[in-house]
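Query structure, 218 tokens:
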């Protein structure tokens, strides 16, 4: 097969691997999606001994990844767009080994239909995850202090007494920590979303608080 095609496909895999590494640091809770997306980029490399099948795989995976990047943009999948474009270049890099007219036409039409179906469907609140609070924390180097870690853990876990369904802390970037607090579908008597919000804001480490849904954070 063409060395040029192989080079472009390999570049796509490298780009996807870098995105996955970045994604694992920025949002560990989405690790599975980043890894699966990157693994899809590597699929054409398994077909090196079948040039025509390799070119078709590059086209299908590249177009599919572009569609996935648009559908999953809100959770960072747009970062895979460069890898998808590199795969598309690989599919057409060799004049004598291209996917074929019918697949070249059918693949983008199918991908566009999937994206349109996703964005045009009416929202279904029953199938969307409940909202959650996303708080930026000012912890700094104290994160390595055992006494601070124990005290902060106890204070954040008390949020469950005010209805929090989950309380987790993760690192977003270098030195920036985020607290995610799940909101129940229905609060128990004496609890409310406003009271839970007040309790989060009382944590001295909280410098910014946003209410997030499946679609956005305000």
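Result returned for the query:
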């Amino acid at each position: 097969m063409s060395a040029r095609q192989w080079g472009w496909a390999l570049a796509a895999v490298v780009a996807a691997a870098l995105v996955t590494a970045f994604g694992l640091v920025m949002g560990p809770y989405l690790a599975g999606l980043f890894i699966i997306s990157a693994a899809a980029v590597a699929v054409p490399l398994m077909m090196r001994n079948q040039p025509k099948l390799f070119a078709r795989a590059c086209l299908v995976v590249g177009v599919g990844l572009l569609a996935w990047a648009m559908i999953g943009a809100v959770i960072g999948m747009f970062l895979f767009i460069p890898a998808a474009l590199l795969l598309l270049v690989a599919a057409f890099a060799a004049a004598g080994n291209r996917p074929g007219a019918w697949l070249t036409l059918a693949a983008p039409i199918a991908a566009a239909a999937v994206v349109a179906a996703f964005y045009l469907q009416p929202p279904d609140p029953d199938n969307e995850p409940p909202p959650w609070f996303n708080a930026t924390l000012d912890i700094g180097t104290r994160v390595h202090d055992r006494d601070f870690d124990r005290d902060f853990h106890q204070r954040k876990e008390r949020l469950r007494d005010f209805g929090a369904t989950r309380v987790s802390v993760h690192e977003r970037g270098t030195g920036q920590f985020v607290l995610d607090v799940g909101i129940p579908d229905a609060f128990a008597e004496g609890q409310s979303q406003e009271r839970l919000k007040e309790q989060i804001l009382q944590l001295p480490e909280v410098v910014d608080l946003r209410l997030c849904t499946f679609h956005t954070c305000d």
